[in-house]
Write a structure and sequence with these properties.
This protein is of the alpha+beta class. It folds into two domains: 291 residues, 3-Layer(aba) Sandwich (Aminopeptidase); 137 residues, Alpha-Beta Plaits. Helix content is 33%, strand content 22%. It contains 14 helices and 18 strands. The strands form five sheets. It has a six-stranded mixed sheet. The protein has a four-stranded antiparallel sheet with strand order 11-13-9-14, covered by helices on one side. Helix 1 packs across helix 4, helix 3 runs parallel beside helix 4 and helix 4 packs across helix 14. The longest helix has 21 residues.
């Protein structure tokens, strides 16, 4: 089956696909607690409508306990000798964050010039509703031109990836038979740069702990009581300061010792990854005087091969109305991105133990969090016919050889799904780039890379059909 006709169809109909993405991105499908779950259900329904429109069959919104809805569909007419691929993306999104910092309305996708060219701004335009669109467009292009797809497809669009995929293990167990396949194509990662494709072959894990320090049963006047009464905000600050050393590296005893040492081959491969400090600083938006905190042979590789600790939120009083008080309590969320070799359960236990021991002045400490079923890092050997197909198809779509990179972020779906499918190769492909700002304000998608990703997906289906035919 010649994918050239499908590629031409994609080019002629790309604006229509872009409109479909805008429709999905207008739905504020935030899966976090405290946001209206009806919007996530609305997003699932809109996703199901799109999948049906492009030709997926047996499309359904799959219920599972009290999870946000998954969407499932399939196209299984390529024949018994053709390989079967599971396609993954997620339709839930992060909260908008600080809306005053958005240059465009967060849930009204808006086209404007940005790094790399025309970009579509809006929450979910890249992470990860673009992933849904890539899967849908590729099947649509084949069905509208050849009348069939060269491989069998099963598509799963998750509704709670942004909150850690907490129900995924049970979901996989319940639907294991339905989801069996030869390869997984997961469209929820990033390219190395604008126009420079990448296959992600490693992910850090993630654990998080909420810590609350309490000094009082109520907030009190700082003038009337300040001095003899301990300040829980200062106590929490002192505790957080002990978590890293002067170079920003994790200082909690026992954590870094778990990290698997680098091999000579890893070091050699890391040195091949392009790194320009000026560009790196520009991409992340570092202020002029801020120093990089490098570790290992390459700061890019550091993002997935070494652990990091971040205080993702902190709260005591209100920034808008800071009263002259001693706060009754202070709270923070501390997260650690886990690297290869780190046991997530042990990491969580060590972090909690350290925080409790570091609390000064006899104040009360409450520690919550730490999922014993998640948090582990993941990596795969990028060899074999599936990866050969991916590399070839991405070169055809982008005109550039893809880099083999890791990702500093965590995708809870990958490891359990790959294991549930008996170790099926997982191809992690994305449409984000270093300027996307996923999870932050002004999230955006480079439109030209979305087009290239769709073309690559068409070629990937064709290449997998040739290389994995039974």
């Amino acid at each position: 089956m010649n994918p050239s006709d499908a590629e031409l169809f994609l080019a002629k109909n790309f604006d229509r696909y872009l409109d479909e993405l805008k429709t999905l991105a207008r739905i504020p499908s935030v899966s976090f607690e405290g946001f209206d779950p009806a919007n996530v259900k609305k997003s699932a329904d809109a996703t199901a409508t799109l999948l049906k429109k492009v030709g997926f069959e047996n499309v359904e919104v799959l219920p599972f306990e009290d999870a946000h809805p998954y969407v499932y569909g399939e196209w299984l007419k390529a024949g018994p000798n053709a390989p079967t691929a599971v396609l993954y993306a997620h339709h839930d999104v992060q909260p908008a964050g600080r809306e005053e910092l958005w240059q465009t309305p967060p849930f009204e996708p808006t086209m404007k010039k940005g790094p790399g060219g025309d970009r579509l701004y809006g929450r979910g335009t890249a992470d990860d509703k673009a992933g849904i669109l890539v899967h849908a467009a590729a099947l649509d292009a084949f069905l509208k031109t050849a009348g069939k797809c060269p491989i069998n497809l099963k598509v799963v669009i998750e509704g709670e990836e942004e909150i850690g995929s907490g129900h995924l293990e049970g979901f996989l167990k319940k639907y294991a038979k339905k989801l069996q396949a030869d390869v997984i194509i997961l469209t929820d990662t990033a390219n190395f740069d604008c126009g420079r494709p990448a296959l992600t072959v490693a992910l850090r894990g993630l654990i998080g702990v909420d810590v609350e320090v309490r000094a009082l049963t109520k907030s009190v006047h700082s003038g009337m009581w300040g001095g003899p009464v301990p300040d829980p905000v200062m106590a929490l600050s002192k505790m957080l300061a002990t978590l890293v050393d002067a170079d920003g590296r994790i200082a909690v005893p026992g954590i870094r010792e778990m990290v698997t040492p680098l091999t000579e081959t890893e070091v050699a491969n890391m040195k091949k990854i392009p790194f320009e400090e000026k560009l790196f600083r520009e991409q992340v938006g570092m202020v002029t005087g801020a120093k990089l905190l490098p570790e290992g042979p390459n700061p890019i590789a550091q993002l997935w091969r070494f652990p990091s600790l971040t205080v993702t939120a902190i709260q005591a009083s209100s920034r808008k109305s800071p009263a002259n008080i001693i706060n009754d309590a202070a709270w923070a969320r501390v997260t650690i991105r886990t690297a290869p070799g780190m046991d997530p359960v042990k990491t969580t236990e060590l972090l909690k133990k350290h925080l409790k021991a570091a609390c000064p002045w006899g104040l009360e400490v409450e520690l919550k969090g730490g999922d014993p079923h998640g948090g582990g890092a993941w990596a795969i050997d990028p060899t074999g016919p599936a990866f050969e197909a991916a590399r070839s198809s991405m070169k055809k779509g982008y005109g550039e050889e893809p880099l083999m990179i890791g990702c500093g972020g965590s995708i809870p779906f990958v490891k359990p799904f790959a294991e549930a499918l008996g170790g099926a190769p997982a191809l992690l492909i994305g449409v984000e780039d270093p300027y996307t700002n996923a999870h932050g304000e002004n999230e955006s998608l480079l439109v030209s890379d979305l087009r290239k990703a769709c073309v690559s997906q068409v070629h990937l289906f064709a290449e997998l059909a040739e290389r994995l035919r039974k």
